[in-house]
Amino acid sequence: MTADAREPSRQDESADEEIVENSPGDELGYAIADLLRTKEVAEAVKKWVEATAQSKAGEYPHARLQAWLAFAFGMVIFLTIAVLAWLKVLSGEVTAGLLGSLLGYWYGRQKSS
Known about the structure:
The protein is mainly alpha-helical.
């Protein structure tokens, strides 16, 4: 047999032995999955969920109502500014200042919670 006749069989063997490499993203995903399967992480997550549930149970009972009332009041202010601007009662600069203050208040309140 010649060397050319043996060549295809070597190619078939090398194809079977070819190592498939995972992308770095796949490797990271597998590492995180392995980490999450450990008993210590499961216990830590369980303790965190229990602590969070206990801290939420002691919160002010009317917090949801208070949040909705604050939102409704803010929307009344927002709509009042918008209507007065549309009717040209407020100038553009005043409208921008009032809306900026209102949005800054909403954003700042969200960040502090």
